[in-house]
Design a protein that fits this description.
Order of helices and strands: HHHHHHHEHEEHEEHEE
Distance between the termini: 37 Å
Strand order of the largest sheet: 2-4-5-7-6
Number of domains: 2
Number of helices: 10
Radius of gyration: 37 Å
CATH superfamily of the largest domain: Histidine kinase-like ATPase, C-terminal domain
Number of strands: 7
Strand content: 5-15%
Length: 369
């Protein structure tokens, strides 16, 4: 648990240690260059400890215990107690270091500066020495402004860190959800597709044994890709294109002559790494809604690659009462594909879905580099 805490907060710990190193070493520079007295050095370190106590007490204890648990009134009471407690500590430290105050609280008269020169022939004139400014009022003002700044700064910093952790957790949960949906997609491409493909292969065996053997080989390659090649996060674009090609070839087995199929995959391209099964939901959706056994229909699939940029287009005719998209039965659904793209390529992709009278078109542009 401790190891996990330090690993997750390593940058914050380094920044805190760096800030403390600067604060603690600063007086050494001041003493050497500005020749500041020891009283100032002692008071400086005392104030550093007091300010650190205010900041870290609020940061580590009061905010998590009260503010984040919705006990705002207890938080404000605790902050008030913290404020006055450290004020009395600071005030007492000033009295001990500078001895500006006698026990009954009356301010001592400051001694004359060493360079003060007066006429030694006559008695000293009353009020002839310069007086110190009202020290207690100055101390209260300086302490109050610094303490309030530290309280609000630690509160703002802790709230921002908590918001960042919650946002990171939400993204991790969404990624886990998408990973489970990807596993579901691998198991659903598609049960009816494999069932129909096996039936078609069975029919081919008695007609054309050579084509049936090729179909079985393509199906086995698809199964191998789904079971093994997609387990490592990303996959090569060449493997993904081969998977889509095998899928399309098997879908051709149940296509009639009334379907016009146009597929354009790049012959030569930069072999990029991409998330697996990124385009297949759109292709599956096209075959599901773009094929008509009575009327002429079409499916057009295109992929282009250039300079780390991938352009994908899939268009199909709308057959019968089909609206061209099925958010539930098309693998993980086109709506979830859009969410997946948002997490995988934030600000680096553009997805457009155009639905016309008798055509459904998907345009996807991804910037990988």
């Amino acid at each position: 648990m401790k190891k996990k805490f330090f690993e997750s907060n390593k940058l914050q710990i380094i920044l805190h240690l760096l800030a403390w190193a600067i604060l603690l070493l600063l007086p050494l520079y001041s003493v050497k260059r500005l020749q500041i007295g020891k009283d100032f050095i002692w008071l400086y370190y005392i104030n550093i400890i007091i300010n650190g106590g205010i900041f870290y007490t609020n940061y580590f204890f009061i905010i998590p215990k009260f503010f984040f648990n919705g006990k705002k009134y207890l938080y404000y009471i605790s902050i008030t107690i913290l404020f006055f407690f450290f004020y009395f500590v600071s005030d007492r430290a000033n009295q001990v270091v500078f001895k500006y105050y006698v026990p009954d609280g009356r301010r001592r008269e400051a001694p004359p500066p060493k360079h003060y020169d007066r006429d030694m022939s006559g008695p000293p004139r009353p009020n002839s020495f310069p007086m110190r400014p009202p020290f207690r009022e100055m101390h209260l003002f300086n302490y109050g402004s610094t303490a309030l700044f530290l309280i609000f700064f630690s509160l703002g910093l802790r709230v921002m860190e908590r918001h960042s952790r919650i946002e990171k957790l939400q993204k991790e949960l969404e990624r886990e959800k998408l990973n489970s949906e990807l596993a579901l997609l691998k198991n659903q491409i598609s049960p009816h597709f494999f069932f129909n493909t096996l039936n078609n292969i069975y029919s081919l065996i008695s007609i054309n044994s050579e084509d049936s053997q090729k179909a079985v080989l393509k199906l086995s390659k698809m199964m191998r890709y789904l079971l093994y090649e997609t387990e490592h996060g990303n996959t090569r674009l060449s493997d993904e294109i081969e998977f889509m090609t095998n899928y399309i070839d098997l879908m051709k087995l149940r296509m009639s002559d009334k379907v016009r199929l146009s597929v354009h995959f790049p012959g030569e391209y930069e072999n990029l790494n991409i998330p697996p099964l990124l385009f297949i939901p759109f292709i599956e959706n096209a075959f599901k809604h773009g094929i008509s056994f009575r009327d002429n229909s079409f499916i057009e699939i295109t992929i282009r690659c250039s300079g780390g940029n991938i352009f994908f287009r899939c268009a199909n005719s709308l057959s019968g009462k089909s609206n061209g998209t099925d958010t539930n039965s098309s693998g993980i659904g086109l709506g979830n594909v859009s969410k997946r793209l948002e997490l995988l390529f934030p600000g680096k992709h553009e997805l457009k879905i155009n639905k016309m009278h008798n055509t459904y078109e998907v345009l996807l542009n991804i910037l990988l580099k």
